[in-house]
Amino acid sequence: MTIHRNKEILFNCIFGKIWIQSPYLWLSGESSKPLLEMRITHNGRSETVNRALSDFGIEESFSRASKRFHEHYHFTISPSAVDRTTKNVALQAEKYIKDKLQNADELTSDQQFIKTMLAELDGCEIRTIDHKPVTDDTQRTPVYNNQKKEKIIKWRDVRIGFVRDLDLKDSKKFVGGLESYPAIVSQMNRAAILIGLTPETNVVGVSDGAPGLSDELKRQFPQMQFILDKTHLKDHLYDTAEKLEIAKSERKAWGEPRLRSISKGNVATVLTELKDLNETESNERLRQLIGYIEKFKEAVNYNKFKANDYPIGSGEIESAHKSIPQKRLKIPGAGWKEESINPMVALRILRANEWWENFWNQRTEQLLTAA
Fold first, then answer.
1. Does 90 map to a domain?
2. Which of 87, 161, 330, 343 counts the most CB atoms within 10 A of its CB?
3. For position 71, what pLDDT does the model report?
4. Is 151 within 8 Å of 196 (Cβ atoms)?
5. Residue 267 is part of which domain span?
6. Per the domain annotation, does 266 fall within a domain?
């Protein structure tokens, strides 16, 4: 082959922006563009640059990530390029986690089973932003004459769950996203298999009393001992005391003895007291409390749970919310399109699960195979 054309292209590598020759080779009906076949394109970026951009972009705003990249590597990549690169990598991270969970049975054939496993699940709200055309078609932008749009802001519940060996905190594996309880708990189940869940494993689940949550956990983990987060039960007791118009200074005296009695396993006694009280007070909030305790009466024997070294609060998963989705997706001023949330959460989970290095090694192998 001979060089038919040999234009220069600009390529971004970790050492900076470089101009290189990109020959177009031709011979009697055959042609080749060697750099294109190696995925080296004009204004393209090396895999190392992509990794650095997403590394910064998953920790800070895209604007700040652009500045951080310049501080470290002494040339500029725009915030919009950081945005595109991070979100593209995040989509691949989402697929990587999905494949890993789907193949959990194959990946754990030699895995030793865990005797007791802890599972926790909770949600937090992330701000989403969308735009839709205003209803009045006559409202147009002054320069381009495009129809004006209004900003739609919603708060969506992003759920994070984890599973781990009860005795080993560093065995923790996270899942999560903008998903229903059945979908998230299914991911938790696959992650549990990945680290050693078997039919013989005892599962301890800790969470709040959100509608449908405990039912879904027990459905997909039939061997689970569900524990209602003690703080949530306490909040229900104090809220009921307020609705009963008990003075603020006396609410502790009303709620704490009942909480201690429930913790000791005397839930039936407390229920009887509350039902007798309801006959005289006839309060809707009190009836809700009775129904709440009735539903979770097998999940509030806190002294017994503590004796078995089981956690009785969901502080561990609440801390995870601060370090995984909120640290990046809830920074001041942040708003996300709904379709970006799951990939970005996946990229955060990738790091939290210590799968970051394996993910990039797999990407490199795939690029080399394609070349």
1. no
2. 161
3. 97
4. no
5. 230-312
6. yes
